[in-house]
Amino acid sequence: MPGRRGYDRRRGSSSDGPEDWEYNWKRHFPDWDFYTVNEIDVPAEQVGEQSGPLHDLGQLLAEDPQHQLDRFSFGGATDLLPPLPGLRIEGYGRLTLPLDNATDAQRLAAVCQLAPFGRGQDTLIDPTVRKTWQIEPGKIAFGNPAWNEGIAAFAPLIAEKLGFPGTPLALHLYKLLFYEAGGHFGKHRDTEKEDGMFATLVVQLPSMHSGGQLLVYRGGTPITHDFGDAGGTAPFKCHYAVHYADAEHEITPVTEGYRLALVYSICWPAEPKDAAVPTSAGADAVNQMMTLLTRLLGEERQFHLFLEHDYTHKSISELGARALKGVDRERIARLQVANGCLSGDRVYDFYFAEAKRRTVYSFYQDAWDEYESPEVTFAQLHKLDGTSLAGSRDLASYFGHRDVLNPLGKSLLSLWRGHRKERLGDLGNEGPSQVTTYKKYVVVAWPRRLNQALEGIRVGQLEALRTLLTQEPSDDELAEFLQSVREARSRQAFPLRTTLEDQLRHTIFIALLERPFSPRLFGLYLDLHRTARLLIHNHEGWQDLLRLMRWPRAWKAGRARVVEAFAQDPCTTLKLIDKYPKEDPVEMKQLLIEALLRSESGDDDELWRNLQQAISWRVALSLPEPAVCRNLVQRYLNVRDDQFDVHQCMGSLLSAQRLHQNLFAARRHIFQPLLQRCIAKLEDKRASASGSKADYWRFQEAEFPADARVEDFLQSYERTETVKGFDCIQSARKLVETCQKVLSSADALDAEKWQRCSHTLPKFSFTAVEGGRGRGAYVTLTKTDAYPQHREAQRLARVAGLERDIKTLGSLLVVDAGAGPSGSGSGSISAGVELEQTHEAEAAPPRSETVGEAAEGVPTSPAFEPLHRPDIETDAGPSVASGAVTTAAPTGESEAMVAAPSTDDQAQDGAEHQDKKVKLESKMG
Ligand SMILES: O=C(O)CCC(=O)C(=O)O
Ligand SMILES: [Fe+2]
Questions:
Q1: Residues with CB under 6 A from ligand 1
Q2: Which band of pLDDT confidence, cut at 50, 70 and 90, is reported for residue 814?
Q3: Are 21 and 370 in contact (CB under 8 A)?
Q4: How close are the terminal C-alpha atoms of the chain, in Å?
Q5: Domain locations in the chain?
Q6: CATH number, span 67-273
């Protein structure tokens, strides 16, 4: 499981208290009664800033001068509502409160329905989740006119307590609920049952009952409404409770008696202008906020604020900021006030963005684990008035954790909390009447000056650029655009290989070509080309680069940057040098070599790995400068011994030698130390391969799933063993048959086959014979020497291979004149020949690609060729004296032969392939 940094919610080590996870999982998976949920979190210290203007701004927003503002739930006894509402219920008649007898209760229940609840789009009835009777409002009448007057008087009080004094909220009766003993409603949130609904009012009518408390959750301990139970006022008064619809809540089971409650939806006024914005921020705070916003704008920083409450798409798109609840409303209002006092275009624009955090959990070692990093998207931009911006693409990649305005210093998961149960949670009473999904909204603050960039994200930068270009932008305007593109890029990995990106760069380049040269614009353009690959990413990119070279002023300004870009990507650079077409400027090739040399002088591991992958001595050799060769060799020599891949190195050397015999000969003193290192390494290997044969009779790798006793025996040192404990001879015979079946099906005894394809065959050889009778029956297992022989043959082959390699490399060493290495055909290469001049490199014979040709010059090398293809008969040629052993031997396990020369060839193949991809092939021949 990658990157698990979870915590154990069950054990309460998370900071935010109960969630409905446990509840839901329990209900859906009742068998797993102990579980933990581990989630990848980002600790508070890494979310937002620990100091600086964004941090200070958060501090200012964290201070809440009116502590009442975010009372997300409140309630108590009320005298605004009469204790005798004069309730008449269709089919029942006048209801006397409090209800206290079973006869009335039964009559009432008879006119009720079982209350359903919603899950996703479904409306369900499940008494384990909800057990309540309900009656539609249409069937209820209030005989006492004081009732509706009381409700009307209640609304302003609620508005004030919620923090919107003066806002004419509307209260709409939704249902009458009736609970008998055992009645309850599990943890849930309320659906927004009608337009503008954002909170719920519960009025408990005078009731005689125990239990039936309303618990409202939001971090920490829940707020409990006992509706006058403890104070003993429940039977005589109305009690109420208000909570935001998105707050989780539950009704604990009624343990005795009967409980009656009216549920009202609390809605925003239909007329938006009626919604008052709290203005609690004092002048002092506004001033401080202005200063901080100005500093942030100076840094062109965008940031975002997670809203504490949950909102539906419907409420945000229809009401915009008017949908904001409690602390969210206050914070955004204060930001707006301060921002509104700033002038010109040095201000922020605020948008809502719909944030989604999608995560996959999987059950892993008794715990639910977040599987991989969650997928976060910020999409669907809305202005604060709710109007949506078309075509907004995902913004999440433009915002890092550090850009969070985090007033309460929360960890990332706490910021997301409240959103998690989209799938499994129960959403309110009856299934939603429209698509109502709770999502986390964030408010994005975007410097107005960077609007172009935002526009770019929304409609695509290319389009934005094209639009801009039609307006004949000034240098400043164009620079601003490029800056914004750069800014946006720096926040995410530069996406490679998308034609749009290429077109964008190309369009910029052409635009620059057509204007008087501006070093500033040009620098910005080059900022978008940090790597060589980007410069030559497609045919146009290459053409642009060549054009750039022929544009003296630009080239003067940009050459160093181009070298730098190539120096950072030695693989591409090597390939380019190798394939550089004659007709293109010589200057380019020089530049590439310069870049390569520079890249080699670095001490970067990553770079070296790349280089090693791409390295081709053939290429290195073909370079006029021996210094490049020397650098590469030095690089190889610097590699730690445990990382030194002798076969790869040897393969590269031999391939270079084969293809550039003269040059290789000329530069062999450069390669000398590397050859020596390879030889030393191979000698080490040979020494260990010559070692112990004691283990030959121990078939360690034997697998015999059909019978553990047989497997144990095969893996032991014993040569023979008697298996006993059968109840009759038939049982013993059965084991023998099993053994024979395994042995014959795999042709295990066919030594010849073994020689040919060793890895597919079992790693053992033995016989099984039954004897005795009755309970004395037994099976005698006896190892045969087929497998040990095979192992010995392998070992010999390995040693022979190593010896042959050592000999081959030895033949390439610089030797004293006249004392050519024995047995190699390389006597003709004199150590005295030192061809260092450039023209010699060019005078080297055309690259000879055929093995045959190379074999003539250096007869030992082709013997490597076929060895990594065990199925092909080796054609080693007469000059390879020791080849007989090697070729006859199975090759699959012979490490000396494993793909040594293929490494380089594969690198070449890879390079070829790569080149095709970047479409340079046609260009460069
Ligand atoms: O019974 C109550 O007090 C409220 C029930 C409830 O939460 C609901 O109907 O959504
Ligand atoms: Fe509810």
A1: 177, 185, 190, 202, 214, 249, 251, 261, 263, 429
A2: confident
A3: no
A4: 47
A5: 20-62+279-451, 67-273, 459-656
A6: 2.60.120.620
